[in-house]
Amino acid sequence: MASTAQSIPGGASVVTTAERAGSFAACRALLRRDFVLAWRRRGELFLPLLYAVIVAALFPFALGPDPELLARIAGGVLLVIVVLAMLPALESMFRADLDDGTLEQWLLAPQPLALLALTRVIAHWLTTVLPLIVVMPLLGALLNLPVKVLPVLIVALLLATPLLALLGSVLSALAAGARRSGILLALMLLPLAVPVVIFAAGAVAAAQSGMPFIAPLMWLAAALILAIVLAPLACAAALRIAVET
Amino acid sequence: MATFPAPAAPLLSAHRLAFSRNDEPVFGPLDFSLGSGETVLVEGDNGSGKTTLLRVLAGMLPPGEGEIRFSGRAASRDSRNGRILWLGHRPGMNESLSARENLGFLTGLYGTRTGVTPVSAMERVGIAGWIDEPLRTLSAGQKKRVGLARLLLLPGEVWLLDEPYANLDRHGIELVNALIAEHCVRGGAALVTSHGAVRFADPRARHIHLVA
After folding, report:
1. Chain A residues with beta carbon closer than 8 angstroms to that of B111
2. What ipTM score was computed for the predicted complex, to two decimals?
3. Domains defined for chain B, CATH in brackets
4. What's the pTM?
5. Low-confidence ranges of chain A (pLDDT < 70)
């Protein structure tokens, strides 16, 4: 049996002979685990997508079939739809792992907690948000979004949604200890989401009226880089507090 | 000039360690050390602070007073992480994943003890046939055994085991005692809590009594 005790001459400790895990391997293991879990619960992942399609399909009925009006509001409406569709999933980013004790294992692992938190945000974004961006051409067509604006909207979303996911991860970790934290999380995220939505909508509106749209996108990119560095650190601190309580 | 090896510091030691919650003392002050090959049994009634003591030692709670040292160095994330294996009330594994997937993920975080595989660890704890079943289909005792497989598989000298006997049958209790004994022969150490209902195997094990 491989696990039985062996004694080594000289009394050296066998406990220390082990293949240590590198940080890269740890991130890969976490990504693989989260993808497997997402695949097991793919029905749940479909819900935000369904929500976004339904809302986008209802807007023309509520506002009347005026192509001019729809084209004018489409960019802003789609941005808000994506932000709202992201909210429910954000709440559960760390909840299950806190409840079943997996976070305790994260804390004691010989890996930087911030790196694991960042990996979790990446896995979360890939599984819950990326599908929303993939269906954006369909949603744009439902709302008569001008075709030339669509690429700008998608780039804006590719910058804005990871930023929101990173901000949301900190709040989600802070709220993880509280029961029914969904409303709390939404209220906390709203003020942080406002500037993100303003810059993203600014880029889309500028592209729509034929003006330069690079500057607001650059602001989003700068904020995203800042968040990639700082948010995981804050998230790790919040996770330690969540495990403490 | 010849250098003399310093006397080996205990793997884990606590000096005047105490913890209070809202100014209510939970336990302590305690003095103890846990050397290589040693087992310490923490006994006490429900609510006497056994779990809190283990969480403080693991760094999940900040110590109120006193000092914790790992191999002579003051406890910090660097001196502690990767050297502690934690088996708590919560399984530390996802119920939707199988034992193989859970153990695979944890070896990704912690590394693997040389010569052990998830399959051999699951064979040792007697539930190799359940390795590909989602954990939620396993009984409470079987889940506990998957937790024991985790102890076998992951490297880490200091085992902090919170009520490892809970939910286990007679053979399971013997298995826990055998695993702890093997771990101590390997040079590891274990701190085990129990509410006193189980007879502990190793008669030489030291005891810490906590009073509520």
Report:
1. 18-21, 110
2. 0.89
3. 12-210 (3.40.50.300)
4. 0.90
5. 1-17
